[in-house]
Amino acid sequence: MVAVVRFPGTLDHDSAARAIHAAGGTAIAAWHQDTELPAGTTAVVIPGGFSYGDHLRPGAIASRSPIMDAVRRHADAGGLVLGICNGFQVLCEAGLLPGVLRTNATTSFVCRQMTLEVIDHDTPFTRGLTDTLSIPIKNHDGAWFGDPATARIVLGYGPDNPLGSVASAAGVANHAGNVLGLMPHPEEAVDPLLGSVDGLGLFAALVRA
Amino acid sequence: MTTTPLHRQLGLTDDEFVRIPELIGRAPSDAELVMFSLMWSEHCSYKHSRRLLRRFPTTAPQVLQGPGENAGAVDVGDGWAVALKIESHNHPSAVEPFEGAATGVGGIVRDILALGARPIALLDSLRFGTLESARSRHLFTRAVAGIGHYGNCIGVPTVGGEVAFDDRYEDSCLVNAMCVGLVRSDGMLKSAAFGDGNLLVLIGNRTGKDGIGGASVLASAELSEDDADKRPSVQVGDPFTERKLMDCCLELAGADLFLALQDFGAAGLTSAASEMAAKGGVGLDIDLNQIPLREAGMTPAEILVSESQERMLGLVAPSQLDAVIAVCTRWELDANVIGVVTSTGNFTARHNGEIVVDIPALALTDDAPAYDVPQIPADAPSPLNLDDIAAPDDLADAWRALLARPNVASKRWIYEQYDHLVGANTIRRPGGDAAVVRIPGMQRALALTTDCAERHCEIDPRGGGRATVFEAARNIACTGARPYAASDCLNFANPEKGNTGWRLAEVIEGLSEALESIGVPIVSGNVSLYNESPARAIYPTPVVGMVGLLEDARTSVGHGFVADGDVVILLGGGRARFDASEWVGDAIGAPERPDLDDEARLIAATLRITATGRVHSAHDVSDGGIAIALTESALAGNVGCHVQLAEDRRNDEVLFGESGGRILVTCAPDALDAIREAAADAPCAIIGTVGGDTVSVEIGSEIISLDLTDARAVYELTLPKAIA
């Protein structure tokens, strides 16, 4: 079962659960005040939103909530963790992923369909994915800032780098590859009715775990 | 030294002031006087428009909740209802655009929430002065930022809307927000209080001094040059709390823990509680000391009328109080019992053990004054003389120039700042005729639009009212959805002056006639008057928010051309004219009054045509005429077209003239017979073919062409440049 973590202000938990279902899996809710992941959890997704209203810094408060200790233990044991948008910000703030997410170069929220490049096919998430993915971005603080020499950049925006990420990074993994954060929203790309199913592969990876 | 009496400072007339003792049998306390001034303000009581609003068609088989509640609702099948409402936040946005627009979104979301409905989509209809004005650029960019900030953070997609710029809005910008929500038909909440001893529970934010007197001071009078005094009247939004409030109230509603629910809007607790009491025919006894305050030293009157945001008032049975508090605690929200239902019929408020307010709730609501507004018709318009309008030297240059007007150019700069996807239900994104949003968990989808033909309304308000409804309906029908329900936001100047009262009545008549002709009810709405300054009055701007129902979400039609070789068809018999058009950019001439039968026939034909399943694109011909409509479809599909148009007027008017009742449809050549058959009695002309990388129009011996790459650059860069 894939645990979907929910903080106050999380917005994409239902969409993430639907995406897990579309990938053939079962979603189970994990509440921010819980100290353990739900029994039977095999993988974790931290969906997007504005946890704690982005107060202080996006993801800063959520990264210190009780459930994150359980997520850290799961990750340390090699379990898969996918952080989407605010989930990516939370994972960076929690130190599970390198770098930080800064305010977009546009200084504005940007909602746009993007073509992502899969740079690293050698993670549990990206194995077998096509070289490009059509997935939308929608964020205000999505410019990844970190050291591209040491970080494992898995997904990129290519030459069109609208948010101003270092190395045009759209998604970054830990060195083991079992924790992935990305600013684009794969849960918005799992249904042909909405124009793309390119996000399905990332959820399929969680379901396989 | 003379001082203005308190009642006049509060916006009450002398006649209104005299009525209060007659109603309550004694002189009002100061707190009571403040409450009357707000509840009897235009914003809360609609005293200058109430009698006219009765004209609207409000009944139809699909209506589950008509006007009178926090929002209206219609049946969308399988036991589900869709709630909808549009509301203005004009005056606060003119004073502080970011917070004004943001709290406009927050307010309309809570109106939907008050029905127990989950908000699933937002739209915004905006009007500002021209972008040459630094003030208007500021208002526009900050209002967009405020809408984005609030809407994005609460996780409700902003899927559509419209914006126009005209000097007439320089002093009075318009910010109208519409929200649509989903609720089980049998779980829909009302706001009427009932049952002696049931408890009023205030959930959400603490109460502060923000928004004191907003309804009377800001929203019910003309703005003067010295608006700085009014700044404290603007509310400040907290979208994070709003999201928690949504999650919390929906959980409580889902568990059947609310007996009634009401949001805090204009006039704060005064309005929320008096309406709950008046609707239920009961009294309420409220202890102001139980209301958590943000700042010390607030007077009873301030607590009673504060417009602090993100607050809801629930009616809860005593036996279920603990369960309610537990859910609120889980969502980290304050929840306090602030009062109890009584059988007295009175709105009673206590402070420090003393009764500070004790008046019949009905006196505040149903006894509010109602006035007739002067009905002075404007002069009959005369048609434009084409000789007075210079013909452009080069039609292609003119075309590009029209495409480069902010009113015509792409609105991508706006909607990319809005999360129009959250929830994973947005099938047709902003930029087309209407947005299409899947109803979560259902095969059906909703088409959503807001529209207004304000220049037409200025010249011929009856015709403009009709044109507004039909444009919305055509936008809905182009997606394949059936126009199903509407909400209206009537933005007008001072109705007591000049022809405005007459225009208000005529617009309502025009809207009503058109709505009746296509069987669409008004289920909710809002009126915003006094949108004028000493220098300028706005155009009559009756924004209609319309919801369409699409039986199968997979069948929605977009506005972009699809394939080389497709046939371009012009549906409808509208005659292109410059009167009131974007080309002339002014409310001049005498635009043709839309014919009710012709327009209804066109909409029915469009629905039959889209139902064939063989339509590749459909696009309403509106601002900028057929040249712009063709360009928009070509840009959206990234493929050009070649069409031939009759040389029945001067070529610039053929290209850029406007009229109601025209829709561009494309289909594969082998679908033509099916489309023609479906069009039946509606005019249906083949005008050209899709293909190539130019949009070219042949009129007589002249061919006018626009390169798609050039057109895209002009179309996409205009707005970013204009505000840079």
Figure out the total of helices of chain A. Answer: 4
What is the residue-mean pLDDT of chain A, rounded to a whole number? 97
Total number of strands of chain A: 11
CATH class of chain A: Alpha Beta
User: Roughly how much helix do the residues of chain B carry, as a percent range?
Assistant: 25-40%
Main β-sheet, spatial strand arrangement of chain B: 8-10-7-11-9-12-13
Q: State the end-to-end distance of chain B.
A: 51 Å
CATH fold field value of the domain at 395-723 in chain B: 60s Ribosomal Protein L30, Chain: A
- The percentage of residues in β strands of chain B lies in 15-25%
Q: Which CATH first-tier class of the domain at 395-723 in chain B would you pick? A: Alpha Beta
How is the biggest beta sheet of chain B arranged?
Answer: 7 strands, mixed
Instruction: Indicate the low-confidence ranges of chain A by residue numbers.
Output: none
Counting structural domains of chain A, the number is 1
Name the features.
heterodimer, A: 209 residues, alpha/beta, Rossmann fold, 9-stranded mixed beta sheet, two-stranded antiparallel sheet, 4 helices, 11 strands, 27% strand, B: alpha+beta, Phosphoribosyl-aminoimidazole Synthetase, Chain A, domain 2, 60s Ribosomal Protein L30, Chain: A, 7-stranded mixed beta sheet, 24 helices
In short:
The complex is a heterodimer of chains A (209) and B (724). With 209 residues, chain A is of the alpha/beta class. Helix content of chain A is 18%, strand content 27%.
Architecture overview:
- The complex is a heterodimer of chains A (209) and B (724).
- Chain A has one domain: 3-Layer(aba) Sandwich (Rossmann fold), CATH 3.40.50.880.
- Chain A contains four helices and eleven strands, in the order βαββαβαβββββββα.
- Chain A has helices spanning 13-22, 66-76, 86-93, 200-208, and strands at residues 2-6, 27-31, 43-46, 80-84, 100-102, 110-118, 132-139, 143-145, 152-156, 169-173, 179-182.
- A nine-stranded mixed sheet of chain A has the order 2-1-3-4-11-10-9-6-7, sandwiched between helices.
- Chain A starts with a strand and ends with a helix.
- With 724 residues, chain B is α+β, with helices and mostly antiparallel strands.
- Chain B contains 24 helices and 26 strands.
- In chain B, the strands form four sheets. In chain B, strands 8-10-7-11-9-12-13 form a seven-stranded mixed sheet. In chain B, strands 21-23-20-24-22-25-26 form a seven-stranded mixed sheet, sandwiched between helices. In chain B, strands 1-2-3-6-4-5 form a six-stranded mixed sheet.
- The radius of gyration of chain B is 26 Å and the shape is globular.
- Chain B starts with 5 loop residues before the first helix and ends with a helix.
- The relative contact order of chain B is 0.13.
